[in-house]
Amino acid sequence: MIQLKDDHDNRGCLVGSCSLNCWAKYKISQKSIKLLKEIKNLKTEYDAFKEKTEAQPPRAVREIPTSSIVVGKIIKLNLEKVRGYLAGDNVSMVGIWGMGGVRKTTLLNEINNSLLGGDTNLGFKYVIPLVVSKEPQFEKLQKEISKRLGLPSNSEKSDIFEFLKNKDFLMLLDDMWKAVDLHETLGIPLPHHQSQRRQDRGQRCKHKVIFTTREDDVCARMKRPDKKIKVECLDGEEAWHLFKQHANEETINSNAGIKKIAMKVMEKCLGLPLALKVIGWSHVE
């Protein structure tokens, strides 16, 4: 900046030549443009550094939207059972299984949301929900895990392992169609990787996994889960309640004949929540 000022002050002392004076002005303007670019680059670097250093760490749990309509007695009972497993030290992996449409995903989401808040998260530093699906794309899942942990998107399996191995975390894996080696495919530390103890309390870290699947056989192949929970269809009372919530209850109750037909339709759903919702919606009119 000082050099630019000196050049500007001396611009008229160039042998009185107009052409030389114009040339001096041109050189000064070019230097100014270059300096301005450098200042902008420095500001961009500063802003990026500030954003990185001031970024808040990821929240332990992120809420997953659910509908209170589909949360019934069975979901609540299984939720309390799972929270008991999570609070203790003897259960590290839980397999939730049952036919399609019995609300396994709903249960998993309720488990996630029950851990919201510092007083209810059972000490987990990270709760990581993932949808595995029938044909898992492990690179995509790996990026989702990295994003959830606040790691660079190009993080490797080894980076995820090193980050999580001494931290309390819960993996929530939905819709698994086959057994998966979580350590080999995603870098997830499993319970037997808990040999190192935390320096703060001298205790083993909580490495816990809950997964859902349609097949009991998948549970058997997932490194022998400590506990299995079978999600059953609804009983008659809860099935009727769910059906009415999705149908037009006013119309159903307006006529004894209509109510009788509605109950027969409901019974054909065999307590399957998904069928009750779909059939209920189709009988709104």
Automatic annotation (TrEMBL):
Stored Pfam families: NB-ARC
InterPro entries per UniProt: Apaf_helical (IPR042197), NB-ARC (IPR002182), P-loop_NTPase (IPR027417), Plant_NBS-LRR (IPR050905)
Transit peptide keyword on record: no
Domain NB-ARC: 78-251
Top-rank lineage group of the source organism: Eukaryota
UniProt keyword annotation of Nucleotide-binding present: yes
An example Gene Ontology molecular-function term: ADP binding
GO biological process entries: defense response
Keyword annotations from UniProtKB, A to Z: ATP-binding, Nucleotide-binding, Plant defense
Protein name: Disease resistance protein SUMM2-like
Taxonomic path: Eukaryota, Viridiplantae, Streptophyta, Embryophyta, Tracheophyta
